[in-house]
Amino acid sequence: xxxxxHPEHTDNIWLALEIGxxxxxxxxxxxxxxxxxxxxxxxxxxxxxxxxxCQTLNDLLEKIFPQGESLTNTLPLCPLLIASVVPSQTxxxxxxxxxxxxxxxxVPLKAVYSTLGIDRALALWGAGKTWGFPMxxxxxxxxxxxxxxxxxxxxxxxxxxxxxxxxFATLGQQTGQLPLVEMQNSPSLPPRxxxxxxxxxxxxxxxxxxxGIKDFIEVWLQLFPDGKIAIKGGDRTLLxxxxxxxxxxxxxxxxxxxxxxxxxxxxxxxxx
Length: 272
Hints:
Catalyzes the phosphorylation of pantothenate (Pan), the first step in CoA biosynthesis. The protein has a five-stranded mixed sheet. By secondary structure, the protein is α/β, with parallel strands linked by helices.
């Protein structure tokens, strides 16, 4: 976890929102300190319009923060920094006052291509600025992505494939005979050679994803022996348990940090 500075009363308060493929991810900052983070489902446009009508930050937090975060009720609505990979969701947030949508050209990475996802760019920038470049970021979310930059903060490149849940769902929905297998939260690996269909699907998906992660990490370390590796995303804990069981020497190299995108946003905000 990135070390936090003690917040000063004079520091600015601001909200960061990552609009992901499946959910909304929130962070409340006081200056450079990430005070709270939480996830919610997508909000309806009518709800967002209600948020825009809130008079104070406390009114806003009461509507979107499930743990009931409370601040001085006289604080005005703070800036909202948005990083989004879902354009339709981005559009409906424009009604919220003091909204700033972060775009790829604001991320100081070099040699990026125009269609690089803002989530991948920000996570890589946040990880690299926190722990140093070269940096490889593995995002184990709806999609499983690999994104890397060298010591000069130049994009090396990466890869995208369906994540665990998406692979299970695709097999269940796009085949006539195979069942829909839900994500398994057990830390135990499935049997490699299964003798029933459900475990066969689990084996095929899990072991090929783990082999792919191992391969990317090994090639990365061949290219950059001193390179860092960070992992984030909703499936990170499950995959880390599996990786630890199979490849403990590789797992020991991983920096686990779910808030990489927020650190990237913070670097941009504080750098202004």
